[in-house]
Amino acid sequence: MNQPARRSSSAHSIAVWDPFVRLFHWGLVATVGVAGLTGFVLGPAWIRVHIASAVLAAVLVTLRVIWGVFGPTFARFSSFVVLEPGKLLDHVDDLRADRAPRYIGHNPLGAAMVLALLASVLVLALTGALFLGGVYKTGPFLDDLPYWAGRVSGVFHQLVALGLAGLVILHIGGVIFESRREGENLAHAMVTGRKTLTRDAVVAPRKRALILPSVLSALFLLGGAAYWAYAASREAPGPDGEGSPRGLPVAEASFDPAFAEECSACHMLYNPSLLRAADWRKVMATLDNHYGEDASLDPKTTQRITDWLVAHAAETADTRPAHLFALPVGPDGSPGMINDTRAWRKLHDDALESGAFKVKSVGSAANCQACHKDAQSGMFSPFSIKVPKE
Amino acid sequence: MKYRHVLATLVAATMATTVVAGDTSPAQLLKKFEAQAGTSGSPERGRALFTGTHTGGKPDTPSCTTCHTTNLKGRGKTRAGKVIEPMALSANPSRFSDSAKVAKWFRRNCRTVLGRECTPGEKADVIAFLSSI
Questions:
Q1: Residue A15 — φ and ψ, nearest 5°?
Q2: A253-299 pLDDT, tens digit each
Q3: Which one-letter DSSP state was computed for residue A41?
Q4: Chain A CA closest to residue B12
Q5: Fewer CB within 10 Å, N or C, chain B?
Q6: Which residue in A238, A266, A292 is closest to B1 by CB distance?
Q7: Torsions phi, psi of A152, nearest 5?
């Protein structure tokens, strides 16, 4: 309900949202918007943009939290009325009875929304990083985080992302509702930073911004986080030959020479972590009919390669492909047709539809490394996909 | 560290190739297969065998040219997308210089295309054909 009478006579505008709060707000709109678009709509090919926007959003929220402790009056969490017990429900009751006061800063519902939005972004950044660490063995959590923990984080990440999308819709609805109730365009106020001061408006007690503690906390928190993320994300130590303690596949540099020589004559080197030991045994026992060709080897070489494959089979790796594709032998007894698995088809839906496999330099679905530049490592990182045009 | 490893592998691979490769030559092999067969290798029969379509082997590979292509001075491609160096000796002089490799690939590929191993006479024909183009 508009109350123009309040505004007319004694109304004058005061500065409410300081430049950082405004920059933060619209910066968050942009970064969360890009993260949402890339995450929900554009998909895995945009993972770099998704992560970059997400990191920026998390940095913005961290700065906002610091500003919430040391910033000026309306930026401070202590001015968020919602933190006082019972105020949120009182405010809802007042709204229903049409007697709710006008808050110059955040009203209790708005303040609750701000806290929920900030928390969601931080939880999304954390679960996203945990997902990348556990599932793709990349990023700051690549050490010792098991695959299943990454998967759980990924599911949580998706749920919170949906929750955040819902919160954003509620937030916009709340701003429209409150703008009409107050007769003041609140979105515009977040651009100019100024709101109309009315006599009966609730104004939080004035507080000065503490610049030095803000800057020091920002340097400490962001610098620490950046250093930790950098140190923790460093590349894995050199090839160790034996199954790595972190469940990484055997490195290319440690491939058995006989395996590398014989198998690469016809096809790319499939990392042993892509099939289970039992399947490798079956593949190696049927080399005279190897996916439609005779690939037989002398018994000694066959035994040597079999032993090496079995020693580095999927059971020794904790990567995504090792979990997704290392399926038991199919009902027809033909082992190791990764592109026959439902998981593979689901992941390559778009590529199958767009005819990417018919491109000359790809040729066949067996030629993983035409697009997955890291295919032989067994990692199949989303960062290593480059689909050739011809 | 990594580069040193790659270098060591290359050196080792080069040494391995020089030891194994070059234990024979197309002419020597031709002579050997001709002696076993009791006939002389014919480039024409070799061409017919190499470029012909056969039915006894695996269904996906009815001909040698399925992978090696009909342009034998150019590169072929395995069904899994790997490049095969040219077969014609004029385009690839290192063909037929390693007896173990020749034995392995004749065994495998004749079984794949024909469904049986090639006779010494057929091997002589193929070598004569690939030496002639």
A1: -75, 125
A2: 899 999 999 999 999 999 999 988 988 998 999 999 898 899 999 99
A3: I
A4: A257
A5: N
A6: A238
A7: -60, -45
Supply the ipTM of this predicted assembly.
0.78
Q: Give the CA distances from residue A184 to residues A41, A110, A194, A196, in Å, rounded to whole numbers and listed in that order.
A: 34, 15, 11, 8
Give the span between the Cα atoms of B38 and A269, in whole angstroms: 42
Count of residues making up chain B? 133
Angle at A163 between CA A159 and CA A167, to 5 degrees: 170
Answer yes or no: do B81 and A370 touch at CB < 8 A: yes
Q: How many Å apart are CA B130 and CA B133, to the nearest integer?
A: 6
Which residue in B6, B82, B108 is closest to A296 by CB distance?
A: B108
Nearest to B5 among A253, A294, A296 (CB): A253
User: From CA A202, how far away is CA A196, in angstroms rounded?
Assistant: 12
CB–CB contact A266 B5 (8 Å): no
Q: What is the pLDDT of residues A51-90, one digit of tens each?
A: 999 999 999 999 999 999 999 999 999 888 776 778 888 8
DSSP secondary structure, A77-108, as one string: GGG-GGGSTTHHHHHHHHHHTT-PPPBSS--H
How far apart are the C-alpha atoms of A179 and B81, rounded to whole Å?
63
**Cα distance from A79 to chain B (closest Cα, Å)?**
57
Find chain A residues with C-beta within 8 A of B58's C-beta: 289, 292-294
Give yes or no for a contact between A283 and A330, defined as CB atoms under 8 angstroms apart. no
Amino acid at A243: G
Across B14-105, the runs of DSSP E, i.e. the strands, are: 76-77, 83-84
Work out the pLDDT band at A310, boundaries 50, 70, 90. very high
pTM: 0.76
Set out the domains of chain B in order of their start, with CATH numbers.
Answer: 20-131 (1.10.760.10)
